[in-house]
From TrEMBL:
GO terms for cellular component: membrane. Keywords: Membrane, Signal, Transmembrane, Transmembrane helix. Pfam families: Neur_chan_LBD (PF02931). The keyword Signal applies. This is Neurotransmitter-gated ion-channel ligand-binding domain-containing protein. SUPFAM superfamilies: Nicotinic receptor ligand binding domain-like. The chain crosses the membrane at residues 202-223, 230-252, 258-279.
Length: 312
């Protein structure tokens, strides 16, 4: 909660206007400032066995995620020191106006950034860049597993120059429900990325496709104990219904598990129709117990008369 409050305060601070004194100091500094020149403060560089690199610490704050074409709300904070913008006369941090653009690393965001702001701490020359992403991310999946597929989405930040991005902090500020629906993983160094994984809404497909198809095939199966005309009508209606379901529920162009399931139901219905048309018609004669009793009564007098004639 403390992190989210700090982010809200930062966003409110970015929308405020700077004072005339701050504007005068910036105009004085930018007379000899060139935004194309990278800062040379020693705190910006890190060294290892591969060499010395300009390092930019990155903080990622995940605010919200919503599935069904994953929607993201992320705030990315980058920090570096520009010793040329140290203003000893000023104390408070303030946002940089649009007419005074400082040096900023050339970055490629995937997806693209919705808004970007930069603030300056004048006593130390510390620059903070706030990049906000509020967009829908394209995800990858195995289409043949539909409706039981899982989606993988990636948010990445890649520098175009020789700078390195190091994720120092990651804060997941989502609600518990969003955390259960979507898993997030931080990319390994040196990549600056977030990977999101979530499963499709298969209960919806269970109610809209699997359950109706099972009921349709069951009705065809139980119709075999009825008359030939009823068998054929039910089977033809089932075939038409399954074909409509097969043509209407196709989110992918590739063959999926749902297509195989509906095709197997369709083949089953066609097989039963062929059996009904091939085998001869069955004539079922229904006999009531009342008719049987009447036939017995009519047969009893005949037996009595023949018995009397025998003894006479």
């Amino acid at each position: 909660m403390l992190n989210s409050l700090l982010l809200i305060l930062c966003s409110l601070q970015l929308t405020t206007c700077i004072s005339q004194n701050e504007l005068n100091e910036l105009s004085r500094k930018f007379k000899y400032y060139h935004a194309a020149v990278r800062p040379a403060a020693p705190d910006n560089f890190v060294s290892d066995r591969n060499g010395t690199f300009f390092n930019i610490p990155v903080e990622m704050h995940l605010m919200a995620t919503r599935i069904r074409n994953l929607y993201l709300e992320v705030i990315i904070v980058m920090t570096w020191i520009d010793e040329r913008l140290r203003l000893r006369e000023l104390k408070d941090r303030f946002p940089m106006p649009s007419e005074y653009l400082p040096w900023h690393p050339s970055l490629v965001f995937s997806p693209t950034v919705t808004s970007k702001h930069t603030t300056l701490a004048p006593t130390t020359g510390t620059m903070n860049s706030y990049s906000t992403i509020k967009t829908t991310v394209e995800c990858q999946t195995n289409a043949w597993k539909y409706p039981f597929e899982s989606f993988t989405c990636t948010l990445s930040v890649v520098p175009e120059g020789d700078e390195t991005l190091t994720v120092t902090q990651f804060h997941d500020l989502r609600s518990d429900t969003q955390k259960l629906l979507t898993n997030v993983f931080l990319g390994d160094y040196p990549s600056c990325s977030l990977e999101f994984i979530f499963r499709s809404e298969w209960p919806r497909a269970l109610l809209s496709s699997f359950l109706p198809s099972i009921l349709i095939v069951s009705s065809v199966f139980f119709a075999q104990w009825k008359r030939r005309k009823i068998q054929i009508l039910v089977s033809l209606a089932a075939m038409i219904g399954i074909l409509i379901m097969l043509c209407s529920q196709r989110p992918y162009t590739a063959t999926t598990l749902m297509d195989l399931w509906l095709c197997s139901n369709f083949i089953h219905s066609v097989f039963l129709v062929l059996i009904d048309l091939t085998l001869p018609a069955r004539r079922v004669r229904y006999t009531l117990m009342v008719h049987v009793d009447e036939e017995k009564k009519q047969a009893n007098p005949v037996k009595i008369m023949t018995t009397c004639g025998f003894f006479g």
